[in-house]
Amino acid sequence: MIADNLQRVRARISEACLSSARPQWAVTLLAVSKTFGADAVRDAYAAGQIAFGENYIQEAVDKITTLADLPLQWHCIGPIQSNKTRLVAEHFDWVHSVDRIKIAQRLSEQRPPGKAPLQVCIQVNIDGGPNKAGVTPDAALELAQQVNALPHLKLRGLMTIPEPAADFAAACAVHALARQLVDALNAQGLGLDTLSMGMTADLEAAIQSGSTMVRVGSAIFGKRE
Ligand SMILES: *Cc1c(COP(=O)(O)O)cnc(C)c1O
């Protein structure tokens, strides 16, 4: 079932790339395995999936440890408290949810020597949703410059989680704001290559607007409890 679902999601991504005249290789699929067990991740790996996203740090670390025999790439996409930065720095390859310099500094300090730099996206509250994680678009440049100066992190881009939009055009419009922000940061010399946006419900709109990484959970693993 996971293999079939993955195939369907890959087809959706291909279609979206085709209809927005973007090459298929420009969009990476991140399989969001939060709340699902190690066996589900193994099934997805058997169907060719390498990159996995997790929200809850301790749950993720247990899975990463259990699956250490597989060559997987792990992305932290959930909120990070200060007391969890060490686990993130030690176990993950990517973090999409950096929205404070203090967290970034701790991740850099705690990245084990000999590991590749932690690949980082800054989370931006692109649609100004209330009570939502992420810096405001106005604050993104300063945080990006600060993160960029840290030795054991590699700043790759931005991550957004907009509120559900009314229709396709509205979703595209919100995602386009993120694309414009990345372009503006790159105009300041930041060299970002990643725009992490789009989930099960809105991946087509995100790809249309320039997403380079879609984070898809329920369309692959099924409904969460
Ligand atoms: C859960 C989650 C996803 C996946 O959501 P689906 O709607 O199941 O595809 C993507 N990104 C983040 C940050 C999430 O928390």
Structure, explained:
With 225 residues, this protein is an alpha/beta fold. It has a single domain (2-221), classed as Alpha-Beta Barrel (TIM Barrel). The protein has nine helices and eight strands. α6 links the parallel β5 and β6. α4 crosses α5 (101-110). It is globular, with a radius of gyration of 17 Å. Pyridoxal-5'-phosphate binds next to β8 and α9.
SSE map:
Layout: H1 2-19, E1 28-32, H2 38-46, E2 51-54, H3 57-66, E3 73-76, H4 85-91, E4 94-98, H5 101-110, E5 118-123, H6 140-148, E6 153-159, H7 168-187, E7 194-196, H8 203-208, E8 213-216, H9 218-221
Parallel strand pairs: 1-2, 1-8, 2-3, 3-4, 4-5, 5-6, 6-7
Residues 32, 34, 55, 77, 161, 199-201, 215-219 line the site of pyridoxal-5'-phosphate.
Q: What's this model, at a glance?
A:
By secondary structure, the chain is of the alpha/beta class. It is built from 9 helices and 8 strands. The chain starts with a helix and ends with a helix.
Shape: globular
CATH C-level name? Alpha Beta
Q: Can you say what the CATH homologous superfamily is?
A: Alanine racemase
Count of discrete structural domains: 1
Gyration radius, in Å:
17 Å
Average pLDDT score: 97
The total count of helices amounts to 9
Distance between the termini: 18 Å
Structural class: alpha/beta
Extract low-pLDDT stretches: none
CATH topology name: TIM Barrel
Count all strands and give the number.
Answer: 8
Largest sheet composition = 8 strands, parallel
Q: Name the helicity range.
A: 40-55%
Query: Strands across the major sheet, in which order?
Result: 7-6-5-4-3-2-1-8
Cofactors, ions and other ligands in the entry: pyridoxal-5'-phosphate
What are the secondary-structure elements, in order, as H or E? HEHEHEHEHEHEHEHEH
Q: Report the sheet-strand fraction.
A: 15-25%
CATH architectural group: Alpha-Beta Barrel
